[in-house]
Amino acid sequence: MDETSQKIIDAAMSLVKDKGYVATTTRDIAQLAGVNECTLFRKFKNKKDIVLNGIEQEKWRGNLTPDVFKNVKWELASDLEMFMTEYMNRITPDFVKLSIGLRAPQLYGESAPLVMKVPQVFLSSLTDYFKEMVSRGKMPEADLECLAMTIFSSTFGYTFLSASFENHLSPVGREEFIKQSVQTFIYGITQKQ
Amino acid sequence: MDETSQKIIDAAMSLVKDKGYVATTTRDIAQLAGVNECTLFRKFKNKKDIVLNGIEQEKWRGNLTPDVFKNVKWELASDLEMFMTEYMNRITPDFVKLSIGLRAPQLYGESAPLVMKVPQVFLSSLTDYFKEMVSRGKMPEADLECLAMTIFSSTFGYTFLSASFENHLSPVGREEFIKQSVQTFIYGITQKQ
DNA sequence: TTTGATTGCAAGTACTTGCTTGCATATATT
DNA sequence: AATATATGCAAGCAAGTACTTGCAATCAAA
After folding, report:
1. 20 to 30 A Cα–Cα from A42, which one of A113, A178, A184, B179?
2. Are A50 and A70 within one domain?
């Protein structure tokens, strides 16, 4: 990937984050990238091609790879906190906005499989973790896929809601949310300790 | 609200759901509403005015009012299931798509406070419910706002992810998710029963 | 029957959109 | 020195955009 093409991609993704795919114009992209508009079409087939090349780059999916969740201690509370923290460190409000900006119908059929990689990494890493915990006898048997979905939904939901409404919806801060919700997941409401 | 204006609003909201605000054209709206394009501008100031009038209508926010959550039995498991079920009954994939379609920067400053009403109703109803449960001695004291946020995040997250990726992300169905996650919230992972 | 309001219709305005073209210039490679 | 590649620049195109205007038809209230 030559430097000019990368500048174009970066500009395009940044604008899609701010304005959405449809409202992002090729003139905008060219200006922000500091190149002439016709250069976009020498490097890429069309506007859609620019953005699709962008999503294919890991850096534009928050660099959320399976390695991120490798650092486990086989201790439920601290490991769940680690999963949630690492996710929120990478899936910042900007990335949430980007993934919403990518949801134009002209694009979504092709972008969805790439966007979906991010939750998939979290979910499958967590499910694998639970399986190993069960086989180590550190967790009772359960519907692990469903359990992972509960925890991921909550992590995703909080991340998304914070990006959308900041603290106007709920005053609960990130650290507090992680600590408390992990306690709830592990011990439940009835035996909160 | 006269019949013509309502037809225009309904057409506009339906198109915003499918294509997003920016990609929805006034020609599209007129055609779907079955009126002439100039009629839109006799009834409303401009395109934005149509959509903002739409979000102000309860029917375009899923009719999610506080009454929806009034039917509690003061029994934790069944009540939490009721909260989640009622939310998911109303906030269908179509409503999730609509709320994403409304996130154009030209609009979001004015639409966000209205869109936010939906999560606010769930959150405050659930927090109030928890307070009453504690005072009835049916639940231990805890950080109730945070607990409500955990449960709402999870409900919202599952709803949103299902609308976005259907069952491609996780095979866990709605009823199973609700049942199992409520069990986790109440009893926790460690004393799953 | 007259009046007033609502709407359709056809045309048009000023502007923006994605994308192209032909040519000049700079820079790097041979 | 000769050549190839990358880019800028200026202009343009066809199509689409939100929104407007003037006039005629309809229809219900007076």
Report:
1. A113
2. no
CB B102 within 8 A of CB B116: no
Count of domains for chain B: 2
AA identity, residue B29: I
Mean pLDDT of chain B: 96
**Chain B positions in Cβ-Cβ contact with residue A192 (cut-off 8 Å):** 140, 142
Do residues A119 and B161 lie in contact, with contact meaning Cβ atoms separated by under 8 Å? yes
The protein footprint on chain D, as nucleotides within 7 A of a CB, is 6-11, 16-22
Last residue of a domain, one of B16, B33, B56: B56
The distance (Å) linking the CA of A14 with the C1' of C28 is: 31
Residue B112 has pLDDT above 70, yes or no: yes
Mean pLDDT of B116-143: 96
Same domain assignment for residues A121 and A186: yes
Structure tokens at A40: 């976009």
Whether A34 and A74 map to the same domain: the answer is no
- Check whether residue A27 has its CB closer than 7 Å to nucleic acid strand D: no
pLDDT band at B191 (very low <50, low <70, confident <90, very high): confident
For position A54, what pLDDT does the model report? 97
Domain region containing B180: 61-191
Q: Is residue B81 domain-shared with residue B175, that is, in the same domain?
A: yes
Where chain A has pLDDT below 70, the residues are: 192-193
Residues B68 and B111 in one domain: yes
Q: Cα A142–B127–A83 angle (5° rounding)?
A: 40
Please give the nucleotide, over all strands, whose C1' is closest to the CA of residue B39: C7
Q: Which CATH number does the domain housing residue A12 bear? A: 1.10.10.60
Q: How far is the CA of A101 from the C1' of C28 (A)?
A: 39
Q: For residue A81, what are its two tokens?
A: 């906190």
